[in-house]
UniProtKB/TrEMBL annotation:
The keyword Membrane belongs to this UniProt entry's keyword annotation: yes
Domain of life: Bacteria
Protein name according to UniProt: DUF6049 family protein
Organism: Streptomyces werraensis
Keywords: Membrane, Transmembrane, Transmembrane helix
Keyword Cytoplasm: no
Length: 799
């Protein structure tokens, strides 16, 4: 295959390449003859070396530059060799070999799988002058190497991907002949000229994290948020995972795929936040990461400017778990709709760009009919699906374009599985990172050379790449964007491109969903707990004067409880959901009835107070307090079995509500106090207490009545005495006034009788006779006869 491909090229002549490779074969003939002449025992001793795929010397390729060379470039390969055996290696030589043309995508997979196999085929070694010699390589010792070769010396002919291998040959004391002791295969894309039809490649760049914020907030006016850990601060700090994602992505032509919860969480850190169990002196409590959060958000705003942004539903809910376990729980789809509705507002308010919310992205792009149904239930009409779970199409010899219409106005945007998964794994090792970059480019070029049809390819990497993975991805994307066979494209443009009529459009059945993914899904109990918490929230919010202080943080927390990031962490997910429900129960319990002890009634009617306590920072209203008697024949509440009164209590206060009761008989009656919302649903726990009724007897009534009568009579007597005294005083004053007037007239007549026109009369003459009888017409004396009795109260006595 390699030779046939070479004759199609225009670089080094076919004759020259044939001579070089024939020479390599002839050079190996003496060695082969020597091996054939070895005794049987020696041949058996050589077997253990061949049994080890990786050989006794490990070879790594830490760097290959340029990753996709062109005419006139010099290819430089560097890495290390490490002697893993127990024998020293002598006369060691590191060289490059160009193998066959890898013209299929599966052949690239095969080489990648066996990249360290010393028994795998290798091409002819490049000129001996492009080798590096080592006189001795001791056991356990590593040595670096660097080999630079002009591109025109690599004998590259036909455009495509070549198997480039670095080999180490040498001898050991027990095998003293030249042999291959270590090898490392990598890939060399060769496309010096622009293709007539370039592949349009979309790379999704995810900004997603795990759940960090709780439902709890402070009682202050700002509602200080509470985080359950401080890991987000580390991620956005310089050098952190999310910091690297932004720094690397801003220079790439990618589509940003963002979880709005991440933006909301970082924005909450721009003021101050708290972590349970930490004191007020800790830096995060007083805003120690405030500047870090502000800087990161500013960098994100710059990075996404003039770029396409896709907003996932708030919290990045696990669509597969919801489809398989949540749809049978009432209200679960409601949370997905709320998460979708709030997504655009959150992203636009923080990043000042209008995102697209038309996309659903199930975990690893694995779907079945139920997942498709749930994904589109909240308004999305495009589902990101990975190619290895979706049929490409019958008899297709090429990778079809990404969009596939699957019915109902829904488009499956099928991502390329090979390109999407190549960056999985540990990329902290330079050799792994270099291999991933070369494999990515090799797959992309091979895909582009499959056909001259215009195609759109979408790459969806892992949801939360590490900093090392992000670095590797950025290197590969940067090279691809400058390549001669691909050009960048936004996700929306890719989804709108013309579908390939030969591509498969059948959604995989539920039985085809990967078992490994199904084991990680959220259980039905998770959605039942979320529904139970939502029901409690609905009952609690109706009594609040400011519902937003509770509805918003708890609503977002319920969205986070369904996050895809909980996969593989069932215990942590359960703790988070329980924490949300428990905190809501705590808040609801702040509005309650105060317990009452037994109450005694010693009359036929009395007033019973019941106290409602509100320890929330805001007022509560729309509550009704009902007091019910369990024995209305003995005790009635305002003449009935129960009475209701509306309740409104300010924040941090208590209020006593009074009920009028009527007793009909002696004994103990049980009374129940219960708060209700205005829609008639019970709120909180009832308070039950006993009322002891003592009936009033007839004797007691007579005694009480006699006492009241005496009080009335005493009061009446005092009233009449005062009235009589006042009358006597008025009469005496009138008599005194008349006497004074008569005396004055008599004096005037005596002084001037003629002037008065009257003569003195007998009545006015002094009476000297002691025994003169009294006449009926005589006037009464001026003073009353003296009496030896004491004078009456208020009476005037003349002396």
């Amino acid at each position: 295959m390699a030779e046939a491909a070479d004759f199609q090229g225009t670089s080094p002549s076919p004759a020259r390449r044939w001579l070089r490779r024939t020479g390599a074969v002839l050079a190996g003939t003496p060695l082969l003859a020597g091996l054939l002449q070895l005794p049987a025992g020696s041949s058996a001793e050589a077997a253990p070396r061949a049994a080890s795929d990786d050989g006794s010397v490990a070879v790594s390729v830490d760097s290959l530059t340029p990753s996709a060379p062109s005419d006139g470039d010099t290819v430089t390969v560097s890495g290390t060799i490490t002697n893993k055996g127990k024998k020293a290696v002598t006369d060691a030589s590191v060289g490059l070999r160009v193998g066959s043309l890898l013209d299929t995508r599966s052949s690239i997979d095969t080489v990648a799988k066996n990249s360290g196999d010393v028994d795998s085929p290798v091409g002819a070694e490049i000129d001996d002058k492009y080798t590096e010699k080592f006189a001795k390589l001791a056991p356990g010792v590593s040595q670096p190497y660097t080999i630079s070769v002009p591109a025109d010396e690599l004998d590259l002919g036909q455009d495509g991907v070549y198997d480039l291998s670095v080999t180490l040959t040498g001898e050991t004391s027990d095998q003293p002949w030249e042999q291959t002791l270590g090898v490392r295969h990598t890939f060399l894309p060769w496309q010096p000229d622009d293709l007539d039809t370039k592949t349009k490649t979309t790379f999704m760049w995810p900004l997603i994290s795990t759940v960090h914020m709780t439902a709890e907030t402070g009682s202050d006016e700002e509602q200080t948020p509470v985080f359950h850990d401080d890991e987000l601060a580390a991620e956005i700090s310089p050098g952190g995972r999310l910091d690297r994602m932004v720094a690397l992505g801003k220079d790439l032509d990618v589509t940003w795929v963002i979880d709005p919860d991440l933006l909301a969480s970082v924005e909450a850190m721009t003021t101050r936040y708290e972590i349970p169990g930490q004191s007020a002196d800790d830096t995060n409590v007083v805003g120690g990461h405030q500047e870090v959060a502000k800087r990161w958000l500013t960098e994100v705003q710059k990075a996404v400017a003039d770029k396409e942004v896709v907003a996932l539903p708030f919290g990045d809910p696990d669509l597969a778990s919801l489809a398989h376990h949540g749809t049978s729980v009432t209200g679960s789809l409601r949370h997905l709709k709320e998460a979708t509705d709030v997504a655009a507002r959150t992203v636009e308010s923080i990043l000042h760009v209008a995102p697209s919310t038309d996309y659903a992205w199930p975990v690893e792009g694995a779907v079945d009919p139920s997942i498709i149904k749930v994904s589109t239930s909240a308004g999305a009409d495009k589902v990101i699906v990975r190619g290895d779970t979706f049929e490409s199409g019958r008899d297709l010899t090429y990778t079809p374009t990404a969009p596939r219409p699957i019915g109902g106005g829904t488009t499956a945007v099928v991502t390329d599985a090979r390109l999407s998964t190549v960056f999985d794994g540990d990329m902290t090792r330079a050799s792994a990172s270099s291999q991933a970059v070369q494999r990515f480019l090799a797959q992309s070029l091979t895909l582009a050379l499959q056909t001259d049809r215009p195609r759109s390819v979408v790459v969806a990497p892992q949801r939360t790449p590490s900093a090392a993975q992000a670095q590797t991805m950025a290197e590969a994307i940067g090279t691809l964007q400058d390549s001669t066979w691909s050009q960048p494209q936004a996700l929306t443009a890719a989804a709108k491109s013309k579908p390939d009529p030969a591509a498969g459009t059948e959604v995989p059945p539920a039985s085809a969903y990967p078992k490994s993914l199904r084991k990680q899904e959220l259980p039905r109990s998770a959605f039942e707990q979320i529904a139970r918490t939502q029901d409690k929230l609905d009952r609690f919010k109706v009594i609040l004067s400011d519902q937003s202080r509770v509805v918003t943080p708890f609503g977002r927390a319920l969205n986070r409880g369904m996050a895809a990031s909980w996969r593989g962490r069932p215990a942590e997910a359960a703790i988070y959901r329980s924490g949300v429900e428990t905190y809501l129960d705590t808040l609801s319990g702040q509005v309650r009835l105060i317990e009452k002890s037994e109450t005694k009634l010693s009359g036929r009617s009395a007033t019973i107070p019941v106290t409602v306590q509100n320890n929330l920072v805001q007022g509560v209203e729309h509550l009704v307090l009902r007091l019910s008697s369990t024995n209305p024949t003995r005790l009635q509440i305002d003449g009935n079995a129960y009475e209701e009164q509306p309740v409104a209590v300010s924040g941090g206060h208590s209020q006593s509500v009074k009920f009028t009761t009527n007793a009909n008989a002696n004994g103990r009656a049980t009374v129940i106090a219960q708060l209700y919302t205005q829609d008639g649903r019970p709120y909180g726990q009832p308070v039950t207490f006993d009322v002891k009724v003592t009936e009033i007897t007839a004797t007691v009534m007579l005694v009480i009545g006699g006492g009241v009568l005496l009080l009335v009579l005493a009061g009446f007597r005092m009233y009449t005495q005062r009235k009589r005294a006042a009358a006597r005083q008025a009469g005496e004053r009138e008599q005194e006034d008349a006497a004074d007037e008569a005396d004055a007239d008599a004096d005037d007549d005596a002084k001037n009788p003629e002037a008065s026109g009257r003569r003195p009369t007998q009545e006015s003459a002094p009476d000297t006779r002691e025994d003169t009888p009294e006449q009926p017409s005589d006037p009464a004396p001026d003073t009353a006869p003296e009496s030896a009795d004491p004078s009456g109260t208020g009476e005037r006595v003349d002396r």
